[in-house]
Amino acid sequence: MLFTGFEHTALASPEPKKLAQWYVDTLGFRINYEYDGNYFVRASDGTMLEIIPSQGDAVVTAMKTPGIRHLAVAVTDFDAGHEELKAKGVQFLTGALDLSGNRLVFFADCDGNILHLIARPQPLP
Could you tell me the pTM of the whole model? Predict the structure, then answer.
């Protein structure tokens, strides 16, 4: 197969180092590479975010405005993950949901990017 997946997703931030550190402190990711004010943050499963310096003013977004709307963060134990995020003072955008056995909750990072914690009983096909 020629195209094998997304190597990383980029987020633009007015304070890239601060946002990268939020992912380290909050989700246990690690900064695995940095250059010229850009930070790559890697999760334990190998997925990466590149956090780059932003330019201009942020646009107002909501849960369903056009464009990329959230990043889904997989967790092995939903209740423990949810409690850990609560203990770290994360800003939740919804309460915990159970949709056909999929457990999730939406929250925001320190820049207001939307994420959601998700635990599925079965992986998607």
Answer: 0.94
Q: Do 76 and 41 share a structural domain?
A: no
Question: What is the rounded CA–CA span in Å between residue 6 and residue 35?
Answer: 20
Q: What angle do CA 68, 64, 89 make, to 5 degrees?
A: 80
39 plus 80 within the same structural domain:
no
- The count of structural domains within the chain is 2
**pLDDT tens profile 5-24:** 999 999 999 999 999 999 99
Enclosing domain of residue 22: 7-55
Give the CA distances from residue 99 to residues 14, 68, 105, 106, 118, in Å, rounded to whole numbers and listed in that order.
35, 21, 11, 13, 10
Instruction: Answer yes or no: is 2 within a domain.
Output: no
Query: Which value, to the nearest 10 degrees, does the dihedral of the CA atoms of residues 20, 26, 28, 31 take?
Result: 10
